[in-house]
Every structure is written in C-alpha cells, then in structure tokens.
Amino acid sequence: MKEFTIEKNDATQRLDRWLGKTLPLLPAPLAQKYIRLKRVKVNGKGSQRDYRLQLGDRLQLYINDEFFDTPTPENAFLSIFKPSLSIVYEDENLLLVDKRPGMVVHPDESERVNTLITHIQAYLYQKREWSPYWEHSFTPALCNRIDRNTGGIVIAAKNAETLRIMNDKIRDREIDKFYLAVVLGRMNPPEGRLESFLLKDEAKKQVAVYRRPVAGGKNALTLYKTLRVKDGLSLVECELLTGRTHQIRAQFADAGCPLLGDGKYGRERENKKYGRSGQALYSYKLTFSFPTDAGILNSLKGKTFTVENVDFVDEYFGG
What we know:
EC number: 5.4.99.-
Shape: elongated
Radius of gyration: 25 Å
CATH superfamily of the largest domain: Pseudouridine synthase
Helix content: 10-25%
Catalytic activity: a uridine in RNA = a pseudouridine in RNA
Distance between the termini: 55 Å
CATH architecture of the largest domain: 2-Layer Sandwich
CATH class of the largest domain: Alpha Beta
Function: Responsible for synthesis of pseudouridine from uracil.
Number of strands: 15
Number of helices: 7
Strand content: 25-35%
Pfam families: PseudoU_synth_2
CATH topology of the largest domain: Pseudouridine synthase
Enzyme class: isomerase
Largest sheet: 11 strands, mixed
C-alpha cells in the first residue's frame, strides 16, 4: 500500500484523472476496476471515480508496486489492459502469433506501446507465466520479424533455450516459410525461382535488386508458384529460401509484377485502381522441418501451422 496526501496543485481533480496522471502505467480500465473494488481509498474509505479531490485528502492505493514505476520501453506492457493477439499455436516454450497488418513488431520512432512484442509480454504477464520482476527473468523475445504492413505468423520465444534453438534453426534454414502475395499481371513462367542480390539503402529504407554480385549486396532466393489469376491479378505462393529485407517485394517488382498495394516498390496508379493501400503480402504458413535435433522443441518436428483466412484472398479471388 502507498499513501499520498493531496496538495494544492492536485485539489479539485477527479479521482480517476489524478490516478491516471500519478500512475501512467496503470491502464484506465484497470484503474476504474480498482476504484470499484475499493483498492483506491480516500481518507480510509472507498470513493467514486468522479470524486473531486480536496486539499489534505489522504489516498491509500492498494495497487501492485510495478505500476508506480517510471514508464520505459521495458515496462510498456503494463499499460496494456487487454492484449490483442491472434494465437495460432502455444505451448510452454513458444507462441505462434498471427500479426495483423499495420502493427509494428518492436517499438520504433512511430510507436512505443502498441507493438506485437508489448502485447505478447502483457499477455504472458497477465497469465502469470512471466514477470520482469522475478529474479533472473527472461524477457519474451521474437525470433523473426515482419514488416509493419505485412501480416502473418511471428514466432515468440518464452525462454532463452527456445530463443537459442529457433535462432539456430532459422539461420540453418530448418524452418520453411511460405507467403501469399497478390501481384500485378502474370508471372512468366507461372512457377519458378527468383535469384538476385539485394543492396540495402539505409537512408531510404529500400533495397535495390542486382542480377550479379555487388559489393555489400546479399543473395536472395525465392521459390514461387502461381495459384490463381483473375482480373489482371495473380495470387502467388512464395517460399523464402533466404530472409532478406523486402525480399519478396523487391524481387517481384524487379520481375515486372510488383505486389498490389506496395507503396515503395509498386505502381501507385494500379494500387488506386484496385483500392489497395499496404502490400498484399502475408506470411501464412510455417513448417518446422528440423532435420537435426531441436532439443526441447523436438515435438514440433514436421509440424505445419497455417493461417486459415487471409483477407486479400477473399477480396480479390473470392476465397
């Protein structure tokens, strides 16, 4: 329990607003709940959220200590009352989460709180599976990343051993990653392999495609297969053999069939024609092939996990 005495500058404020200002990490719905449960007392008694504080009032807060911390990127998860996650699979070691387009995976200059990793941390904290306040606590971490405007499966490790194994498996290409994409026009041939070298421009946050090795460039390999063609668009399944920044987006644009909705590598006139903003790209399937030992993750060997519904498939190809 922590106690506060209301001074002149805080007098006449509503109780709930004072609580939000004093404890910025405490989600507003949780603050309202604590007021209702009388875990917030005024002069030793329960009160209403709209009570106007008076000079000299004594407030007793029966609230967990962590909510009194100074907000930082490390404790931002505390401010999330109801984590928004679409969980594809979960066990004691990891989570497979279907990230929605528009959400960033980690905090950046544009978003500090509403990120995928923050929602995952809030989810596990509220389940009491993890807390940064436990001794030697491991912080849940993402094993792979997806662009803000791309949706799909992201792997989150609940413990250090899982993170180590997953990092090794991704590096050794023992996890098969499949994407669905809608591209403009038709790929020729309809099934094949895209192989090139990508050079990243950090200032523009964009990559250039080269057919031959170039200084600083990284090789990029993508297998693709056309699944459907309709109204000038093609639905393509892509298998990543490497995992480079903007790999699918840049390679298909270079092949003459940019992704629908891609504002960086695509065609703005075509995007407007079809009413699409944000690239039509989804990491919809993962297979844990694991030809070598996977330790505590051996039970996942050979298993495939799929996102059943991808919105742009329904929108442009009727399901």
